[in-house]
Amino acid sequence: LLFVACVALYCACADAWFGRVGSAVRSGWDSAREAVGSAVDRTREAAQGAGDMYRAYSDMREAQWRNSDKYFHARGNYDAANRGPGGRWAAEVISDAREGYQGALSGHGEEDTRADQEANHWGRNGGDPNRYRPEGLPDRYR
């Protein structure tokens, strides 16, 4: 009888210990899977956001429409940021790099760079890009 009681006590202790360990391992695995999934989501959003920025740049080059620059800045940032945090990050990095180059090397003035950054921030923070849309710009550039 003593042997049976000891085995029962041992099994109860083991179950309590390994049950908690197993639960912790499962919880850790779930957290890791969630973190990897989040990183994959952010990477996808960043890639799609970079595509949005490129599409806005490409449309701006194609349109060659007077005073449309700020609209395309705002639209690219708006579209990219709407992808999620990864898209917002891509929009910020691309915009800052472009404005850093433009301000330092291209000869465009500080005022133009500041106005571009204002449009970038406006779009990236959810502002309607149409605020900067010039009159008469064809609808295909929405």
Task: Characterise the protein shown here.
The protein is mostly helical and about 140 residues long. The protein contains 4 helices and no strands. The chain has helices at about 1-65, 70-80, 85-105, 110-125. Helix 3 packs antiparallel against helix 4. The longest helix has about 60 residues, at about 1-65. The termini are far apart. The mean pLDDT is about 85.
Which characteristics define this entry?
single chain; 142 residues; mainly alpha
Briefly say what this structure is:
The chain is mainly alpha-helical and about 140 residues long. It is built from 4 helices and no strands.
Q: What is the number of E strands? A: 0
Query: Main β-sheet: number of strands, strand sense, barrel status?
Result: none
Secondary-structure element string: HHHH
Tally the helices: 4
Percent strand: under 5%
Q: Based on CA inertia axes, which overall geometry fits?
A: elongated
- The proportion of residues forming helix, as a percent range, comes to over 70%
| Helix/strand structural class | mainly alpha
How far apart are the first and last residues' alpha carbons, in Å? 83 Å
Overall pLDDT level:
85
Radius of gyration: 27 Å
Low-confidence stretches: none
